[in-house]
Every structure is written in structure tokens, then in C-alpha cells.
Write a structure and sequence with these properties.
The protein has 108 residues and is α+β, with helices and mostly antiparallel strands. It has one domain. Helices cover 45% and strands 19% of the residues. A four-stranded antiparallel beta sheet has the order 1-2-3-4, sandwiched between helices. Strand 2 and strand 3 form a beta hairpin. The protein is elongated.
Length: 108
Amino acid sequence: MQEVTLHMKKVTVRRSTSGDAAALARLAALDSASPPRGPALVAEADARMLAALPIGSGRPIADPFEPTAELLALLELRRSQMESAENSSARRRGGLRALLRGRLSQAA
């Protein structure tokens, strides 16, 4: 088994934008896959997009000529953080609505 050392100086994880279409298409072509439909998280290193993960559903894509397993794990972690924050926010909103309904029904 060969150990691979990642020599990337700066890794950026961010949401994709409409300006990323060409880079996502290039990455998908390298991975023999389709580009993500809809929003995705992307990992860039050394000013190059190396991996992308759809935010909703779909398979990740990555540059097969670069060591990207750790980048994909980072994207998965970030997606789970975002989902957790969304779920927490939805619970708080639901609790606030229930509280307001209870107060409004008591006032009537």
C-alpha cells in the first residue's frame, strides 16, 4: 500500500455559484460523471476545483488524478453540519410558532 501525502497549501470549501458551471463540467468529465444538478459544495486547492458534492442528493465528483479522499470527507462533514443547522433552525421556528399559537389562543 502506498501512502499519499497531500501537498495542498490552501483548501477552500464553499457553495457553488452559477459561475462554476464550466469548472464543474470539467471536473465531471474527468470523473466520467454528470455535473451536479442544483447547488453543490466544492473543494478548491491551489486555485483549482478538485471535488464537488451535491447539497441535496447525488454522487460526489472528484479529480481522479489527485488525492481527493480527504477533500470528499471534508465536503461530507460540511454538508452534515449544514443539514444539522437547518434542522435545528426548523425546530426553533416550529417551537416559536407553537408558542405564538398558544399565546394567541389564550388572548382570544
